[in-house]
Design a protein that fits this description.
Blueprint (H helix, E strand, L loop, with lengths): L1 H10 L1 H20 L4 H8 L3 H13 L3 E4 L2 E4 L1 H18 L1 H12 L3 E5 L8 H17 L4 E5 L3 H9 L10 E5 L12 H12 L2 E2 L10 H7 L3 H11 L3 E4 L2 E2 H7 L4 H9 L2 E5 L2 E4 L4 E4 L15 E5 L6 H7 L7 E6 H9 L2
Length: about 350
């Protein structure tokens, strides 16, 4: 396929450009259907006049339906999207980007999805779908899956389906306590949703994400909490996001003294309560209940899911401390920025 694509690039470059544009339109409709033409044009950064012609073509090919409620993809269109996926990754250079990212970050496996989730909200759904696919590939026997909170993990939950695995083989546990954010993005809520969508089971961890040393000693010895913490340590799979340092510190309502430490330490990234500078050094750590960074090397499969050009520094910083079993799932926006500063 690669040789054919190279020939097309040289002899018929316009055809590849048109194919990419129509693929992007189809893909965007499939993520947010039903959608109006004006909204789709804004989402794609395309004029309504240009989009109108493309939409008519796709309709005539029976790839989309147009109704008063908006445009939606047909069964034929969905099938074509699936068939085109590997070819479009080759055409767009994503496969090559993945290889470069592996070398730059010292990873054995990287997944890059098209787009930039900072600018295109639907890309986060694609990150979720890519993560769900990779998790399914490593499931074996009974599985305990530990999950952190955040909107990206919520997107992973949305991508899970009832045919994910035998229900009795899945147990979802929160990797740590809540962070005081929207309930829908807390680890407990996400675990419950994952269990509901797959038919699996879940456990809850009703503790704050950040506690004082005194409270920590008291809470971790509570029988119900101790039981869940034991399950978390036994997880074969961990799903987690990577945050920007200052954003995460603000979400935690970090005190003035600790915030100053994070700023003075030039922290750019955060994961599991650890704040990293660009060299990957830990400049601050909060006392959290749940999975710790030192636990990760003992986990069989660790999936780090984060996208958006703005998170490039955070992702790169965390990868200096990542365990060997880490698989990074990110988007083009973040990937290009990471490679640009490598």
């Amino acid at each position: 396929m690669r040789s054919l694509i190279e020939v097309q690039r040289k002899l018929l470059p316009d055809i590849l450009a048109v194919m990419q544009k129509r693929y992007q339109i189809l893909r965007s409709i499939s993520f947010v259907e039903p959608i109006g033409r004006r909204t789709l044009a804004q989402m794609l950064g395309m004029s309504e006049r240009v989009l109108r012609g493309e939409v008519e073509f796709l309709k005539n090919q029976k790839l989309i339906d147009i109704k008063p409620s908006g445009m939606s993809i047909t069964k034929m269109g969905a099938g074509l999207l699936q068939d085109l996926e590997s070819m479009m990754r080759e055409i767009s250079g994503i496969n090559e980007t993945e290889e470069k990212l592996k070398k730059a970050l010292g990873l054995e496996d990287v997944v890059v999805v098209p787009g930039n989730s900072d600018e295109e909200p639907w890309v986060k759904s694609e990150l979720g779908r890519a993560c769900a696919y990779r998790i399914k590939a490593v499931l074996m026997g009974n599985n305990i899956i530990a999950v952190t909170g955040g909107s990206t993990m919520a997107a992973v939950a949305d991508a899970l389906t009832p045919d994910f695995s035998a229900p009795e083989q899945l147990l979802f546990v929160p990797a740590r306590g809540g962070i005081g954010e929207d309930v829908q993005n807390q680890a407990n809520t996400i675990c419950a949703k994952m269990a509901e969508r797959t038919g699996g089971k879940h456990r809850v961890l009703y503790v704050p994400d950040q506690v004082s040393p005194e409270v920590y000693k008291s809470v971790v010895n509570e029988p119900s909490i101790k039981e869940v913490l034991t399950l978390i340590k036994q997880a074969e799979i961990v799903l987690h996001g990577i945050g920007e340092a200052i954003t995460m510190a603000k979400r935690r309502k970090t005190g003035k003294e600790e915030m100053e430490k994070i700023i003075q330490g030039h922290a750019v990234g955060e994961a599991f309560g650890y704040y990293f500078n660009e060299q990957g050094e830990v400049v601050h750590k909060v006392q959290t209940i749940g999975l710790q960074l030192e636990d990760l090397p003992y986990i069989l499969h660790v999936f780090a899911v984060a996208g958006g050009a703005s998170k490039a520094k955070a992702i790169k910083a965390y990868m200096n401390s990542k365990p060997k079993s880490t698989v990074l799932i990110t988007d083009e926006g973040a990937a290009k920025n990471i490679l640009a500063c490598s």
